[in-house]
TrEMBL record:
Its cofactor is Mg(2+). Keywords: Carbohydrate metabolism, Cytoplasm, Isomerase, Magnesium, Metal-binding, Xylose metabolism. This is Xylose isomerase. It comes from Maritalea porphyrae. Its main location: cytoplasm. The keyword Ribonucleoprotein does not apply. It is found in: Cytoplasm. Belongs to the xylose isomerase family. The gene is xylA. Mg(2+) 1 binds at E231, E267, D295, D338. It is an enzyme of class 5 (isomerase).
Length: 434
């Protein structure tokens, strides 16, 4: 039954590139086959509950601009919010959604009330999911907004806060499992420091490692089959967050024996804040065997903070999906739109149009990435550049020592000449497809 919020907005359908309808898909056709798989099954789109339905339209310098009928801290309003959310999921045809606990349930006076509220709304979600067929890509706990978490959770100097956060994660994992979630995410927005003057970094890292091991232990205890994911971000809200980027997270996972249990949920905006490109973070995670899922958004390159805008840059998105496809594609992960409207975009139509545009950009990027893979130009260029390492001599060198290598170099007495990396030619190649 319609809530009336999206009145006069029909289900978004694929109309093709020639259509001028702003509320239709021009490139995203869920049934189009790309590299032997339906586009919907490649992209595995999810809508983020928090930015679409919980965010009030504020920024660091201004407060609420959105006036939504479900804003408020009661269970009735939480259920109205869910009704509107699942109506949007159906309009867009997204197969998945994602949520934090604080997005979906009223804040209670204590842990027990929070738990009761989460259990009640997750039961309501289960009904909505059965009615609509929408699935849960991942759940998580918001452990950064409430003032109790101002110094983090796993890295908090107060063990009572550590305990409260750990208990909250337990309830959120239970809810995620009950709803058939395919992953569980942890984002350490406050797991870092503002100043080293009051920070025992060694203790905090050890406690954070133990906290994540507890999550993995509980996953196996309850038989949760989903993937545990952590999400890198270098800064903001903390001055320095321990989960800085993909490489830093992998080192952390190795140190605490988690590299075979935990993978990464990577976000484009967080990659930019770390001084990387999105494809760098994806390629790093793929190379290290810890790629899991993505949050698809973008940052404003003129701003030094996380603006969470919907994607609109096809070349960037194409290279991201190129590395995802080269790594075997998504398994349990997917493409979650961790993106929000601009605070002046007030209308329900804006929320639908933003997702349609983002999904179209991803579809164009996916098709460009697939075309590059089918053409094989980048793969051939890499094979040619590294061909020397496939020779018996090069392979033998990697099994020898410095003294043997030095003797061989002295015997050959040849000064090697550098070869062109052909970067511009390869950039021109990519531009043929985007």
């Amino acid at each position: 039954m319609s809530t009336g919020f999206f009145k006069n907005i029909d289900k978004a359908n694929f109309e093709g590139a020639q259509s001028t309808n702003p509320m239709a898909f021009h490139h995203y056709n869920p049934d189009e086959v790309v590299l032997g798989k339906r586009m919907e099954d490649h992209l595995r789109f999810a809508a983020a509950y928090w930015h679409s339905f919980a965010w009030p339209g504020g920024d660091p310098f201004g407060g609420q601009t959105f006036d939504r009928p479900w804003f408020g801290d009661t269970m009735d309003l939480a259920k109205l919010k869910a009704d509107v959310a699942f109506e949007m999921f159906e309009i867009l045809g997204v197969p998945y959604f994602c949520f934090h606990d604080a997005d979906v349930r009223p804040e209670g006076k204590d842990f027990a009330e929070n738990t009761r509220n989460l259990e009640e709304i997750s039961d309501y979600f289960a009904q909505k999911m059965e009615q609509t067929g929408t699935k849960l890509l991942w759940g998580t706990a918001n452990m950064f907004s409430h003032r109790r978490y101002m110094s983090g959770v796993a890295t908090n100097p107060d063990p009572d806060v550590f305990a409260f956060g750990a208990a909250t994660v337990k309830t959120c994992m239970d809810a995620t499992m009950k709803l058939g979630g395919e992953n569980y995410v942890l984002w350490g927005g406050r797991e870092g420091y503002e100043t080293l003057l009051n920070t025992d970094m060694g203790r905090e890292l050890d406690n954070m490692g133990r906290f994540l091991n507890m999550v993995v232990e509980y996953k196996h205890k309850i038989g949760f089959k989903g993937q545990i994911l952590v999400e890198p971000k270098p800064q903001e809200p903390s001055k320095h967050q321990y989960d800085f980027d993909a490489a830093t997270c992998f080192g952390f996972l190795q140190k605490y024996g988690l590299e075979n249990e935990v993978k990464l949920n990577l976000e484009q905006g967080h990659a930019i804040l770390a001084g990387h490109s999105f494809e760098h973070e994806i390629a790093t995670a793929v190379a290290l065997g810890v790629f899991g899922s993505i949050d698809m958004n973008r940052n404003d390159y003129q701003s030094g903070w996380d603006t969470d805008q919907f994607p609109n840059n096809v070349p960037e998105v194409a290279l991201a999906y190129y590395h995802i496809l080269q790594g075997g594609g998504f398994t349990s992960g997917g493409t979650n739109f961790d993106a929000k409207l601009r605070r002046q975009s007030l209308d329900p139509q804006d929320l639908i149009a933003a997702h349609i545009g983002g999904m179209d950009v991803c579809a164009r990027g996916l098709k460009a990435a697939a075309a590059m893979i089918e053409d094989g130009g980048l793969k051939d260029a890499l094979s040619e550049r590294y061909a020397g390492w496939d020779t018996p001599e090069a392979k033998a060198m990697l099994s020898s020592g410095l003294d043997d290598i030095a003797a061989t170099v002295a015997a050959k007495n040849v000064n090697p000449s550098p070869k062109s990396g052909r970067q511009e030619i390869l950039e021109n190649y990519v531009n043929r497809f985007v």
